[in-house]
Amino acid sequence: MDRIVCNPEILGGKPVIKGTRIAVYLILDLISEGYSFEEIIKLYPHLTTEDIKACIRYTSKTEDQAWLKAELGELPPYDWGSEGPPKGKPVQYKSGIGLIIAGDKQ
Predict the structure, then answer these.
(1) pTM across the whole model
(2) For residue 94, is it within any domain?
(3) What does DSSP assign to residue 102?
(4) Which residues have CB under 8 Å from 72's CB, separation 6+?
(5) Where is 80: in which H helix or E strand?
(6) Which tens digit of pLDDT belongs to each residue from 46-95?
(7) Cα angle, residue 52 at apex, residues 55 and 8 outer, rounded to 5°
(8) Dihedral pair phi/psi, residue 82, rounded to 5°
(9) N or C end of the chain: smaller count of CB under 10 Å?
(10) Residue 9 sits in a domain of what CATH number?
């Protein structure tokens, strides 16, 4: 992961490719729009295939835990109405999958 860095002085601390001001999200947006690695490198000739792969790896490693960092204390209280909150099954977090019903053997 040493190809991806976060520095408060560069793009407000967003993850970028080391030695550049190219944000990880920019590369991921290009990939999602159908750009190939070769096309991205034509746009940014100083990048390598390994830089692009590092962006994908970085996201896959951090995305699973992004919800853990949410500052839920800043949210306003939700009005569930007279019925109160809906009843549901207890859930648990499973790494690499997300939330699952507690006790399931996935």
Answers:
(1) 0.58
(2) no
(3) T
(4) none
(5) none
(6) 999 999 999 999 887 766 555 556 666 666 777 878 887 777 888 888 87
(7) 45
(8) -70, -25
(9) C
(10) 1.10.10.10
Phi first, then psi: what are they for 93, rounded to 5°?
-90, 130
Please report, as a single letter, which amino acid is at residue 18: K
3-state secondary structure of 43: helix
CA distances from 101 to 35, 54, 65, 95 (A): 37, 32, 18, 13
- Residue 37, domain member (yes or no): yes
Residue 58 included in any domain? yes
- Name the token pair of 11: 């793009």
Question: What's the domain range around 56?
Answer: 4-69
Residue 25 lies in a domain: yes
Residue that is written with structure tokens 């550049």 in the block: 20
